[in-house]
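Give me structure tokens for this 123-residue protein.
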Amino acid sequence: QVQLVESGGGLVQPGGSLRLSCAVSGSILSINAMGWYRQAPGKQRELVADITSGGRTNYLDSVKGRFTISRDNVKNTVTLQMNSLKPEDTAVYYCNMNGNVASGWSVLKRDYWGQGTQVTVSS
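Here you go.
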């Protein structure tokens, strides 16, 4: 059973910072991409940032220069450092992991999601 456990959300004033962390546990052979998505009320879930196993990163245009994604391939964790937060960053943030798991004699690629953590930017 693969689980993603997130931490670090909360309430912060505009211009402040938060750090989100996500730890992967369970029986997984290897991890491909890891990332963070967010969903604001009444909006579709969108990709905020992701990072490949080789360290290549990709960011939503509106967070470039403010957010930084990183991962620890030994501890199987991914972190999102969020600086200069704006009210429009308010959303539930979800950790996502694409990994390879054993299924009988096969290796399958699977997507897994965390439970979500609320980030609220407000004065």
